[in-house]
Structures are given as structure tokens and as C-alpha cells.
């Protein structure tokens, strides 16, 4: 069987993988391009995290301040009548309006406590700690608002650069693992006993 080789790479591929792989060189090149492309996209995406998390934190701080104003105002009103927050909430009975208002205030206080905990955890954290504490950054309203206003930027900080490198390595590794699923021809055939 005579196969003409138009390049040294094709010839080496034929030696390494056999004649059947001569036509699979394009597939290998596509998979390599896939790995590099996913690495680049992942690197760019990860490089945005420090700035995105900073903007999320600013929105979170604003939400906590607004909710704190409502909660402090309610606590002041309750204290005027010598009641604690929980006692004042329990006193809000009698009419459907007061019961609805009680439910609204309970939700507001609960949201304030939840967001305040997240803000306390993220406030003085650097980008790497914020990445570790990512579970504090999933409030739907704040996340949606941050995503809506966020614009991609070129990271000029060391943190942005390190996140870009980490993202590129992560993306390339993931793409490499995925590409191994689509390379069954790379398996070596077991020699048969003569």
C-alpha cells in the first residue's frame, strides 16, 4: 500500500499512528484548536472575576444599607412602645393589612440578615478570598443587577492576570479532557499472538 506524504508531519503521524491516521490529522488539529480556544475564552472569563466581584460587593453594600434603614426604623418604633423586634412583629395582628405588613417585614428582616452576613464575609476579602467564598455571591437580584451593568474590561491588576492564567489552564485542561472523549483512534491496538 503506497501512501504519498505531503509533509514530514503527515509522515511522522503515519509512523506513529499507522496509515489509518493519515487522514485524521485534520481532526487532531481541530481538537488542538478547540483546547486552545477554550483556554483563551476561559482565561478571559476568569480575568473578569476580580472587577465583577468588586462591583457585586458595592451593590451588596448598597442593598444592606437600604435594608438596615428599614430595620432600624422598625426597631426604633418598637422600642418607643417598649417592645423588642420579635414582640412588635407578633403584635401585628387583627386585620389582613397588618398581617400582610407583618409578613413583608419578616421577609425584609430575613433578607437584611442574610445579605448582611454575606457582606460581612466579603467586605474586607480580596479577590482570591471572594472566589473561595463564592457561595455568598448568589443573591439573584444583586447578581442580575451587576450582570446588567457590568462591562468587560482589560484586567490591569496582578489579581486579574493571575485569574486569567488560572482560567486559561482550567479551560485548556477541561477542553483536553473533553477532546480525549473524541479521540478513540489514539488507542493502541493490542498485539495479537501469532
Features:
mainly alpha
Distance between the termini: 22 Å
Please give the count of helices: 8
User: What class would the helix/strand composition place it in?
Assistant: mainly alpha
Q: Show unreliable segments.
A: none
Coarse morphology: elongated
Helical content stands at over 70%
The beta-strand count equals 0
Mean pLDDT: 83
Q: Sketch the major β-sheet.
A: none
Give the percentage of residues in beta strands.
under 5%
What's the gyration radius in Å?
29 Å
Q: What letter string, H or E per element, gives the SSE order? A: HHHHHHHH
Characterization of the model:
By secondary structure, the protein is mostly helical. The chain has a domain at about 50-150. The chain contains 8 helices and no strands.
Provide the fold topology.
Blueprint: H1 8-17, H2 25-47, H3 49-80, H4 85-91, H5 96-122, H6 127-132, H7 140-149, H8 158-181
Question: Could you give a quick summary of the protein structure above?
Answer:
The chain is built from eight helices and no strands. It is an all-alpha fold and 194 residues long.
